[in-house]
Amino acid sequence: MRMRSVRLAEPPGGAAPEIFAAGGGMAVVRRAVVIGNGCAGAESQCLGLLRALGLADRLTLYRAIRPTGGINKWLHFLPISFHKLVDQFLRRVFCDTRFATVGQVNKLPQYPVHSTGSFGLSSILEADAQKIVTMVHDTFEKEGPALVVACGRDTMPYASSIRCLAPDNVFVIQIQHPRFRLEMFDLVVTPRHDYYALTAKGQQEVPWLLRRWITPQEPPGPNVLVNSLHNVLKTCGSVRISFSRRTPWQISDLILKEFSTHPKIYIWDGEDPNPHLGHLAWADAFIVTADSISMLSEACSTGKPVYVIGTEHCRWKFSDFHRRLHERRAARPFTGLEDMSDSWSYPPLNDAADVAARVREVLAERGWMLG
Fold first, then answer.
1. What is the CA radius of gyration of the chain?
2. CA distance 317 to 327
3. How confident is the model over 19-71, as pLDDT tens digits?
4. SUPFAM superfamilies annotated for this entry (predicted)?
5. Per-residue pLDDT tens digits for 205-225
6. Dihedral, CA of residue 256, residue 259, residue 265 and residue 270, to nearest 10
7. Cβ count within 10 A of residue 154
8. How distant is the alpha carbon of residue 188 from its chain centre?
9. pTM of the predicted structure, to 2 decimals
């Protein structure tokens, strides 16, 4: 990571503009721009950091939105800008209506995991680097510099472009390793397990061509999963279930068929606002599948019991992540024999506070401070 020092211009006539008022000559950062990808797990990381920085109520949310429908689900390997160009071309060729049906297959309903309401925002804008830069530039004299926080692969081109176009007006933080030139951002925040591939054990454990199979691709046997959940129901007051975007349709279908009419179980249908934050606040314990790193991290931030399904199937950096949780006594394997009324605790995970402290340090090096 490379930091750039910025020398701010002296105010005209010796009068300090508003952006310097509380900083004793330091520029004050009072606002934030979030660039999300529509996935709750990614956007919640941005929001968590801004809460730790005291800017959660002064943010504007933009989203990097990929085209959907038709064959677009097979084009997600393309960079988002190229994907949009291909989508426009195909829609012209197939005259929109035909394109929407190309490649359609029968499938279960999808369960979206994002909700505008979760951010308390009235509107969410589509990401456009040039428009964001123009907005920041036009309001800089009154509002001061902006903190830009982005998370997810699709957000990287926007965040890096904003920093390139307005290096003196923004401080850009990219969450999750961008896998390319780190100097395109002011600060990169990456999970520890992302570096597992660089360790000697990581390089020997899984050949590069086989890494797509490092997490379970199939659900556990129907009898194993359903019997385990039935067992714990005996010691639960109620069970609330929500699916993530990574939940295989086999698992969601199995759970829906088995438990959709059970009087003790509520299953989120994906239509109402996402109840995930409510689950975190009010649940006494959690059962989470091993493939969802973000949901596990959020559950472990509560200090409440967390049980994990499927850790024995994980490899490579996912197994390293689960090992770290186990070492911190934040999670235990789910066996289906647990008494869910048992209470145990651990120091809640709170990496956002550590990251926030580092952000403040780097901003101070630049001559900026949070206001």
1. 23
2. 15
3. 555 445 678 999 999 999 888 778 888 998 999 999 988 899 999 888 877 78
4. UDP-Glycosyltransferase/glycogen phosphorylase
5. 655 555 554 444 444 444 556
6. 10
7. 24
8. 14
9. 0.71
CA 95 to chain centre: 35
271: left (phi over 0), alpha (psi -120 to 50) or beta: alpha
What letter represents residue 216's amino acid?
Answer: P
Strand 125-126 relative to strand 170-175, pairing? unpaired
**Alpha carbons 311 and 333: distance in angstroms, whole number:** 7
Q: How many whole angstroms separate alpha carbon 341 and alpha carbon 281? A: 17
Average pLDDT, the chain: 78
CB 52 within 8 A of CB 358: no
Say which residues have a Cβ less than 8 Å from residue 82's Cβ, sequence separation at least 6.
Answer: none
